[in-house]
Hints:
33% of the residues lie in helices and 0% in strands. It contains 3 helices and no strands. The protein is elongated and about 60 Å long.
Amino acid sequence: REAVAWARHLADQHGLREHVAQEVLPSSRRTEDPKIIKTIRKFAQSLYHPVGTCRMETPDAMGPGASVVDRQFRVHGLQGLRIADASVLPDLPSGNTNAVTLWVAFRAAQQLLA
């Protein structure tokens, strides 16, 4: 509800206003909170697989300032904590994230058992 209000405010700003033809969803006719919430519940979705929130080191980005985890899945600055899921991927793969996530988990398990 607050995001809709913020987006409406943003779209009404000078410089953007003239480029917005109309509000598609929830539509400018919906001004009451219950109607806005109903529209949000009907149309909101998570379209993409979130990745990269705990980026892993890459050869071009090494160390605590450039990543959250090292190449052994260890969180920089915290002892004993590892992250082994899609959040360590530096970029969204072109395919489904499931296979890549299984590989990440497999590699982390190998490292822990070694």
